[in-house]
Fold these 2 entries.
Entry 1:
Amino acid sequence: MAYPEYFIAPMRQELTQHGVVEARDAADVDRILSEQSGTVMFVVNSVCGCAAGKARPGIVNSLSNAIKPDTVATVFAGGDLEATARLRELLSNFPPSSPSVAIFQGGKPVYYMPRIEIEGSDALTISQKLKTAYEQHCAPTAQ
């Protein structure tokens, strides 16, 4: 059963007001991953305290980096049930985790930050880890 939308809407907005695109169903997840030729970062958003005090602020801060994913998208665990299930299918090599962050290239995950890393970090550390991942996975390649 999904959380009521009025309950999770403010948590969605913490990311969407910074240009993060929502995937509400499986087709949205597939479309976002297939339409992009570059990198896509997917955030599994959550109602938990570590999402509120650590993950979302860290993610937003990381997006100020000069190098970042071409597209940043989100599903809401407990809200976007079908989209979350589809994203977790694509991340089947990793245990389900909310919140979490994954970077994809060519529709395949190349980086994953699970909840355990988020819980053990503060927002600034999460931001720095993501910026490091961006430098590694999102930097333009030399022609």
Entry 2:
Amino acid sequence: MIRTFKDLIVWQEAMELVVEIYKITRQFPKSEIYGLSSQMQRAAVSIPSNIAEGNQRNSIPQYLQFVSIARGSLGELETQIMLSHKLEYLDKKTQDKVILQTEKIGRLMGGLMKSLKTKT
């Protein structure tokens, strides 16, 4: 039974992704501390944050809007992960591992959105 956003698997998975992104970006060049590193961290944090905020709203349409924003942040983060690999800040294995996480979260978000849409 889902009582709070903390019970949502998508939120839990997104939180794990945030931790992974922070670990990865610690290894980036210091010149990226206010650049790509910071952008990736903000995009990653935005995902579970928007899921949580939407869950706490009093309407399903607002919840859907916040999950949609989270999905946009997920796309932004995927792009930044691929860019990090192209810039040689991430090796292929790490890129692939994190992209698999983002794809899983994307599928979970899609399921959540579908479920919410049936309730409207």
